Amino acid sequence: MNYPKYLSRLLVVAGIGMLTSRGFAESTPAQPYKIVNTNQIMGAGGIDYVYADNDGRRLYVPRGGEILTFDLDTLKQGDSITNARARGVAVDPKSHHGFCSSSPVVMWDTTTLKPIKTIDVQGRPDGILFEPLTERIYVLSHSQPNATVIDGKDGSVVGTIDLGGAPEQAASDGQGHLYVDIEDQDNVAVVDVNTLKVTAHYDLGGKGGGPGGLGLDAKNHILFAFCHKPATAVILDANDGKILATLPIGNGVDGGGFNPKTMEAFSSQGDGTLTIIKETSPTTFEVEQNVQTKRGAKTCTLDTKNNQIVLIATERPATPPPAAGTPAAAPAPAATGTNQPAGSGGGGRRGNNNGPSMLNIIVVGR
Prior knowledge:
globular, 366 residues
């Protein structure tokens, strides 16, 4: 037997087998998303935005007059930031400073959770975002000034921006552009983060109205505007605002995002659905899945380490049946799942929920 020739043929066959096996592995559809972890905490007060500090591995949930924290990997509850009636949270990972959208804004050390100072702002703080290029915090308001810009290092107010309407969510491309969905004007505002000027408004062209969530594929310059009326994702070219496609989503959207590792956009809805949209190319998109979460889970955040999406919702605890001969009490009003801090400038676009209710933290992954 010619052993060198036999060995050569054997290696070729083995190589073909490996390539074939690899090809099958790459063509195998990804596993569907499902709920992979949950936690429930009884408490009082409403909620709004949930925020994942991916570098610090901490989850922030503003509720009532405090900000609850949880381990992002285990969901174990940690210490709270008190005296902070907030709607959302943003963290500057370089300075290790946290900020919440409240009036005044509370600034804290993300390592110790110790408060540093409060920052007076105008308007009605609602959404909030860290912009990485300039290392600044954008506090969004449904009334003017629509955006207050804060230096992430020292907490000083850099300036304010008139966005031309009520902002809901924003996304940065890290290259000098900030995109903000303007809920009451049915458009996306483009902001130059160096000059703090609005350079364009991308109209949704009647394809969708009341954008309540936003995702951005920064590499391919694609925006996903998740809208209320109709329940639609309007997909746009971030360079010029050209509408590329529209896709259906669930009802009651209030948050969204994009995961560049999986090339998927996602939006969370109050009807208890999480819509996953696959970007197969910069011009081809499809609804990949609608995950059943929990009614009221309409805000979300991305755990970039685990490629998981975290949502929150509240619900009233079950009322025990009345004792024999005791008149039944009137049913408690349904929990709204939002936070409207009284007198805090937190905005009045949704109802308040101050009674006892269960906070549900829901983690969706593969």
